[in-house]
Amino acid sequence: MNEIGEHRWRPQGRLLILEENVADSQPTHLVAVIGAGPAGLFAARELALNNVRVVVFNRDIKPGGLAEYGIYPDKHRMKEGLRAQFRQILAMPLIDYVGHLTVGAQADLSLEALRALGFSAILVSVGAQGTKKLGLPGEEARGVFHAKDLVYHYNRLPPFSSREFDVGQRVGVVGAGNVMADIMNWLVRKRQVAEAVAIVRRGPAEVKFDRKEFEPIVANLDQSALSAEMARVAPMMRAIGQDPEQAHAFLLAALPKAQAPVSSTRMRFEFLSSPSAILADDSGRMTGVRVDDTTLVRSGSDTKAKSLGTSRVIPLDSIVFAIGDKVDEAFGLPVQGTSFVKATAPR
């Protein structure tokens, strides 16, 4: 049981149940939270439950972060369940919300200006807003996209919602996780391109997407091409003790609950393929991707891809990199690798 402002709240799971009114009490501190994704909002809730007044600053108009703009748009129940929790958090009397305001070195409000406002502490929960690139030759060609841009586009986040994404008819998606599956969903069912190719550095046993994420697109999977690809990579899988038949069965496991196809898009996989260069024509438009052939090697309990020294070209009109993100270096905090530097002994 927690007393906050004029109300008494009882936590029940992730929700808060309003119990009754109580006498007003003076907050102990004033804290700024930058970012209104799940991490920032639940942190704000915990602070408010401990009688701390919180101001949440958010880049977007709507709260939710990737819970609002990163989940595939047809997952209505999941999104609305999260929205209900966020609305309840922002209705707490000790939490104020300021949306459509950016914080950073070149933003509406700098960290220095925010510090000068007298907050007891500033909690940074902005997530990975930067774009991770592989540094490939030709990466600036037209037709090269990052998954986050497309995810924001189909989730209608301004200004991405109004941008045109000319992906053409042959599209490659680099990655093997749920984001790759979501992008494939959009390409197959919304854009209805001619061919969608998942380009995976490692093998079929290393794919990370959930079976349910594959149900919207598995009906478009070219099973003959998959069988041929599995036959090609099977010797390298067996060499490190992997089971190609089991991996093949997983890729087809979504078929019993497959959604009815709405396009003739041909979806296929290119495993053990590491992009090494983007090819473009004289106008700067992408025409294909050169991939290095790889094999699988053990690295402790993990599996890594090792180049075989050969390469081939996959003809494509565009490519989408679904390889994760990094923090925004322009935010104003020191960066190491893809993350902000963390204090070893925070106060």
Describe this structure in words.
By secondary structure, the chain is α/β, with parallel strands linked by helices. The chain has 2 domains: 2-129 and 328-340, 3-Layer(bba) Sandwich (FAD/NAD(P)-binding domain); 133-323, FAD/NAD(P)-binding domain, CATH 3.50.50.60. It is 25% helix and 29% strand. It has helices spanning 38-49, 66-69, 76-90, 111-115, 147-154, 178-191, 211-214, 223-239, 244-252; strands at 2-4, 7-12, 15-21, 30-34, 53-57, 95-98, 121-124, 130-131, 144-146, 170-174, 195-199, 266-270, 273-280, 286-299, 302-315, 318-321, 325-326, 335-336, 339-340. Mean pLDDT is 90; it is low at 3-7 and 14-23.
List key phrases describing it:
single chain, 347 residues, alpha/beta, FAD/NAD(P)-binding domain, 9 helices, disordered N terminus
| CATH fold descriptor of the largest domain | FAD/NAD(P)-binding domain
How many strand segments?
19
Structural class: alpha/beta
Calculate Rg over CA atoms.
Answer: 24 Å
Question: CATH homologous superfamily of the largest domain - what is it?
Answer: FAD/NAD(P)-binding domain
Unreliable spans are 3-7, 14-23
Instruction: Report strand order across the widest sheet.
Output: 9-16-10-11-12
Mean pLDDT: 90
Terminal Cα span: 28 Å
CATH class of the largest domain reads Alpha Beta
How many independent structural domains? 2
Rough shape? elongated
